Every structure is written in C-alpha cells, then in structure tokens.
Amino acid sequence: MTLRMRPRxxxxxxxxxxxxxxxAGMASAxxxxxxxxxxxxxxxxxxxxxxVAIDTPQAVSVLDQDDIDREQxxxxxxxxxxxxxxxxxxxDRPFGFAFNIRGIGATEQSASxxxxxxxxxxxxxxxxxxxxxxxxxxxxLYRRVEVLRGPGSATLxxxxxxxxxxxxxxxxxxxxxxxxGTGALRLKYGYESNGNGQLGSVIYAARPAxxxxxxxxxxxxxxDDFETGxxxxxxxxxxxxxxxxxxxxxxxxxxxxxxxxxxRFSSDADNTTLAxxxxxxxxxxxxxxxxxxxxxxxxxxxxxxxxxxxxxPRVQLSYSDTTVDQSNARSTSGAxxxxxxxxxxxxxxxxxTYAYSTTMLKAENTADFSxxxxxxxxxxGAQTTYQDRVADSAGPLGFHPEGSDRKIGLYAQSEVVIxxxxxxxxxxxIDFAEREPGSDxxxxxxxxxxxxxxxxxxxxxxxxxxxxFGSVARTERLPTLDELYSTSGTKAAALDLDKEEATNIELGxxxxxxxxxxxxxxxxxxxxxxxxxIDGYVTVTPTTDTVFFRNLARADFEGAEIExxxxxxxxxxxxxxxxxxxxxxxxxxxxxxxxxxxxxLTLGARLPDRGLEFGWRGTFVDDITTSTRNVTSGVVTDTAxxxxxxxxxxxxxxxxxxxxxxxxxxxxxxxxxxxDYRNNLSLDQGRGRSFKVSLxxxxxx
Length: 701
Known about the structure:
The protein is mostly beta strands and 701 residues long. Helices cover 7% and strands 52% of the residues.
C-alpha cells in the first residue's frame, strides 16, 4: 500500500504542531526581556502609530530588505510568497498579475483591483486594462513591503480598501551609507536559469553635508520565456525592463524633513502576447501578438514636521502615471489583426494608448494627548486625488471608457493605550467623489456620490506573553470609471450603480515568548480568524441586459491565518498558513477568486561567525474546486484544481570583515524537484526548476 499525504493534511498538521508549541511554551518557559528579531517583531508604519506587527490589532505582515534579497524575485508579485492570505492572480509575467488578498482580487474581473489599495511611498497606484495586470514595477527598487489585510485600514488609506492595502517603500541613501560616512556605491548582478533571466543594477548614495542625502539607482532586467515543470515554454512571458530611482532627503532643522523622489519603470516588448494575464496557448493564439511599451512614473514630495505634542503635520504632493502603448496587432502567424472600433470583439486590436494618471495632495496631523497612565494619539487629515483615464485610439473603445475621477477624503483615527494593557483604535472616513465621462462615452453623465468607512479595533494583553484582539470594519467602495461608463452597441453606461458595502469582523490572539529554549531565542505567533461580507457586489450583467454592470451579487469571505516565527542565534523557522473560503452569497458556490488552502514552512540555520545563512522552504497547496456562474443561463460550472508541493533551498553569504566585507552572495534553487503545477488563481502553469544567483558588492566611504 502506498500512502499519499495530501497538502491539506500537512497544512492541518502544521496548525496542530504550532498549537502544541504554543501550549508547551505557555506551560514551561520563563519570560525574559529580550529584543525580538522575528518578522512579527518588525515595526509597522501604515496602521497608525508606529508599533510592532504582533502588537497591531489587525492582520499585518512586513517584508524587509533581507526577505526581498533572499527571494531574488523576477517580478514584484514573487516577493509575497511567505505572506499568509496574500498572493497574486493572473500570471507570473511582470505585466500580467494582480494582487489577491483573502480571496479578493483578480485580473479578469473588471475593476477588481479597486478593492485593494496599492501605494508606493504613500503614492496611490492604479491600473486597469483588458488582459493586463494592475501593477508594473521592479522588486530591486524596494526595501520594504507592508501588507495590511482586510478593510481595517480603510480609515487611513481610502474607503475602497475592502481587500486590504499593499504598501511599497523604495530604497533610501541611509540604507547604504554607514554612520559617519559620506557615500556608498553598490553593484549587483543576478542570474536565473529558467528563462535565462539577468539583472544588473547600480546604486550611488551620497551624504554631501549633514542633513542632506541623495540616492540614484539604475537597473536593467531581462528574461526569455520561462518554462513550466513539464518543460513547456510559457509563450510571451519574456521581457526587458529598465528602471530608475532618484531620491533626496533634506533635514531642514531638528523637526522638519523634506523628501523628494522620482521613479520610472519601463519596458518595450515587440511581438509579445496581447493577453499578458495568461491562459495558455489557446488564449495566446486567440488574441495574437502586439508591440507594447509600458511606462510607469511616480513623483513624490513630502514634508514632515515632528515637533511633538499636538502639532506634527505631514504634507504630501504626488503624481503617478502608468501608460501602455499598444500597436501592430497580428496573429501568432504574423497576419495583421483588423481594428474595428465598432465591433466589441475586434476593437482590442486597435493601435491605442491606455493610461491612468493620478495627482494627490494629502495633509495630516498626529496629535499627542497622552496623560498619566494612558497614551492617546489622534491622527486626522484630508486627501484629494484627481485620476484621469485615457484610451487614445482611432475610435471609441466601449470596454475602456475615458473619464476623470475626483475625490476628497476626510478622516480621523484615534489610538488610546490604557495602562499598558488595552489598546483601542476607532476610526472614521468619508470620501466625496465626482466621476465625469470622456467625450466618447455615449449618453454619459457626471456621477457624484460619497462613501464612508467606520473601523474599531482593540488589543488586550492578557499576560506578558498572550494577547487577544478583534476588529469591526464597515466600508463602502464607489464604482470605478470602468464600471460606470463601459458601453457597447447594445449596452449603455451603468450610471445608477450602487456602492459596494463590506462588513468585516476579525478575532485573533498573539503569543510572544523570549527565552523559550535558550536565553536568546524568541517565539512569536499570530492567529487571525475573519469574516468579510460584501453586499452589492458589482458584476458583469447577462448579455440580454441593457447595461454593462449591476449590483447583482453578494459575496462572503471567511477563513483563518497563522503567522509564526522562531528565531535563535543558530537557527530559525517561519510558518505562514491560510485558509480562505469565498462564497457567492446568493447561490452558495465557491468563487473563482478563492485561493486554495496553503502552508509555507521555512527552516534555516546560521553560522554567524562566517556570515552564512541557509535553509529550505516548502509550499504546500491543497486541491480546490471553484465555480463560475453564467449570468445569462444561470448554469454553474465547476473547475477542479489539484494540490501540489514545491520546495526551495537558499544560501546567503555576507562576510563582515576582511577583504570580502561588503559582499552579498545569494544562491537558491526554486521548485527543486521541477514540479509541474498550476495555482488555481493563475491562468498559466507555474515555473519549473530554476537556479538563481546574485552577487552584490557595496563600497562605502
């Protein structure tokens, strides 16, 4: 008899093992006051007042520079592989993925990206296009990623954050210049065997005077088509992409800081697959190829005044532009594809420039009203944005209507800490919006509306080790330009769309114990259970309807996540376990955006004296059956996906003395056993085995 351990059972085994470790630690270990070095001990900046992740009454995760370097990611989406409840949907191509948080987010659902807020240095990023992803950038530009799951962050980021927030932070000059130094130069080269991928980057950082820092970064990344575990090439996955970052920080005086940055990511891909979101050769052949140029720009100016007391203002002015030029559509055999702007199935082949530009002005203040035995911080502010959507083509494109979206948001969030035990965080926000269609939208009209967000979170320290937390959030999402103004020859703009309404409840516990097995070790665990109900879910209408979109559905998302880590001087372990179920509230079937149950377990060891770290990661994904419903016939179609397991190994070498000081060597093998698999949120088969290496050298003076 041959026994086969299914990924689900291994995920449950991880859960039971974690619970046993927790119980053993609570029964036998003695608490000591040591600094935590696990990822749950990292600081969180995006949930209000600065606090460590384990003490935040919300499901949050942070990835730092070491995590990003270790992944040697070919695209931004690959950075998130160790975050529970978070992954990418669509494809593993740099231009074909969207974020999925707790079952919310997909590339093939129009405006799905609007339910997740994505920021770069606080600058909002948004893009939506048929058969394209939603975020274009290079992982080499970033030093930190924060993920806030669920709508609990809607107060500070926007009422539409039904799924959550993904916040990227770019590299700083201070990351490379040592204390007392004046400059640094970092050179890096990376190689990946699958797809013959290569990366080259150079970073120059300078501190010409006290209080002034500058950084300039240039990068270039390229790859051929990558291969699956079965050895098949994923057509159209190759790319070339240069990127650049300029950043300056000026300390005006002891309390005021001015930050300026400019960032660009670009790619010119001739004869590439039109359908970047994947779907196999059948989809690639159906849509053919195009010449495509992608340019993403981000400009940011921020002024901070940290004077203490009640006056700590922060003002930010930013501009973001994402432009995709598409031309010369042709079949995979080279025959020209006809552009017929009046035909719904042929206008995707027109020469066109798609673009989103967003200007933002945001001003907020954090006031400290703390007193004896309690701390109280009140953050309040206003945010105004102007978004312009462009589809510059030979004729009107009903599936990508032009228009503008103006919003003004007012918000306040209070944080009260009573007796070092109880933390309570209430918040409220209202966004006023005015959406105006472009001149090509037939019978379009300006739509005004407002959306609100109300949040309440609390955390209580039961003991020095154990805490419980919970939160309630109710937020509304306004329809996007795409949902309001899409048209066709038989369907009009859906000007009467209602707002989506999300009600989210979270309950959880945290456990933090230093000195568990040794004087300098640490165990941290965070368990979160959630239920998120979305009423008025916006969906595409049946072909017989007179408008493109209606509030036809109700969606329910519920599940649980465990994030845990153990750190000691010589070894470490990390666990990310998630279970999510997304259900159609009207008909009861499992939504296609629901991720399969997944566990990621990392085990590693260190040789501190030699600057060496090495380890293994296993990713265990259960099988799942999801469904789609034909809105015309009402027929529900099930699709079954097999579970799978992938295994990776990695080595990091960072000597800290002698002639090799400043070297950083990363080695890794992903999908070690060349497993052929497909994640249920992906339209392509996954990457096969890949050997990775990156070599970096930092010179300082």
